[in-house]
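Case study.
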Amino acid sequence: MDLFPLLNSLRIAAIATAVVFFLGIGLADVVARAPRWLKGVLDVVLTLPLVLPPTVVGYLLLLVLGPRRPLGEWMLDTFDLRLVMTWYSAVFATVVVSFPLMYRTARGAFEGFDERLAQAGRTLGKSNAWVFWRVKLPACASGIVAGAVLAFARALGEYGATSMAAGYIPNQTATISTTVYQLWRTGDDVGALQWVLVNLAISAVVLMAMNLFERRARFRKAA
Amino acid sequence: MALDVAVKKDLGSFKLDVAFRLEGDGVLALLGPSGCGKSLTLGCIAGTVRPDEGRIVLDGRVLFDSDAKINLPPQERHVGYLFQNYALFPTMSVLQNVMCAVPTPGLRGPAARARRREAAKAQLAAMELDGLEDRRPSELSGGQQQRVALARMLASRPALVLLDEPFSALDGHLRWTLEMALADTLKSFPGGAVYVSHDRDEVYRLCDQVCAIDHGLSDAAVPTGRFFEEPGTRAAAVISGCKNISAARAAGPHRVACEDWGVTLECEEKADGSTAYVGLRAHYFTVAGHKNPIPCTVDRVIDSTFSTIVMLSTKGGGKIRYELDKDRWAALGDPHSLTLYIAPEHVMPLTDDRRPRLTEAVANDR
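After joint prediction, the assembly is written out as follows.
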């Protein structure tokens, strides 16, 4: 069995999760502190990819990144870098699609955060950055890890936007989900089933890890 | 140590307008019912709440001045804040909580860390908390949490400390020991303290001055003893625990006519045109005497924990509450009518308007 789709999927999901982790935390913090009107607007925009069909996300990505579109053309001319139909095109797609999961879970965790802890830190003379990284983030750790795991799982399972932005090129852009579709389309039921089982196994492990972590977090809180 | 506070903040349905001054290293109480603006006032001093206008000066350092557009961040105020729920960092050990508060000017890296550890350990030892260094806040009792939060606050070397209802999160039987410990801690602290509470007994025992706050408005700070003897205003009398208040007017320089009770009483304190109420404490009546008789009929007798509470009706129709020892009440033989007496020094003429005292206080400050 050619393992490229598995490795490619893991690579894409890992990079996308890393990007989404910092982006989601940062924007969740910005939104949590924004004035009310801006909060409403930002929240809608940032959550939109969660409810849009992935094909719509893929279409919008092609509108921006395509070789004859402004950004895509500029990148091609300046850096000789193609933004679509490459393995990392799938990173763009999965970042957009999985972002709302990280953002919303992080925001929920931040909203449950006792602001008095941050105030206590400030009156003790600690900088705002120290308070954020050393008090707020650790206190919200279980919510933030849950968000990252969800984002990773979603990135791993992304199909619609990925297939539009990165297509299916064996050994170049193939991921587990696009491979399953391709094998099924070409009548290779056994091959498709193999990849389905791989996908099921990974998803089950990821969700189990999340439950384990949540239980430990709850145990620690109760102790 | 000198602290001057005069701030206003409009929160729509609630308006805060407080002014007080604290001099010397004493403890000033902000005393008032829940939701009266005490914690909001602390927030203004600590820098976690931004007032709309006013001025806060600590030892000549301007912490906030709306006219001069000065608003120091909490980090630069050097004001310690003991939160009601103690706000210990839940993911850090006791030692880490205290260590992070130790200032290390001019030190970096391992040297700063060593200094922190040493100072934190010393602080914990001074407060008899050694042995708890590696515990998490969630593994401590409420009383231990309070002591650790105090240690952390003191480790930051504040010029002033703010205490927000430090005993509200604790069970009754724990309070007494901790209150005595807190009194010792405050006594050895080389700076002033502002103590927020709604418990007048606590305030009486712990604080040197009292500033009554009601519905966001403050009276001028007065020495604790005087606050309970001559509350001055009706609101302050209620806050100080006075149970009997009647509408009244001056009937002479040392006489007040009590409208609700239908009697005129002699008072030691001066009554004048501003006198609008009179207050009598439930514990200060006697059943024998020669001054200030108040004829009453007994409405109800309520057996309380350690005293008897007698509810009486006066000739004027107004009610009076009288509290006395159980055996003293039993000795009276359950009478239907009773004449109460009260000494002139316990008759407290009260003004209605809180504003004159406040504006006077602000005027004196400027």
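Observations recorded in class. Chain A has a mean pLDDT of 89. Chain A is about 80% helix and 0% strand. We will return to this complex in the next lecture.
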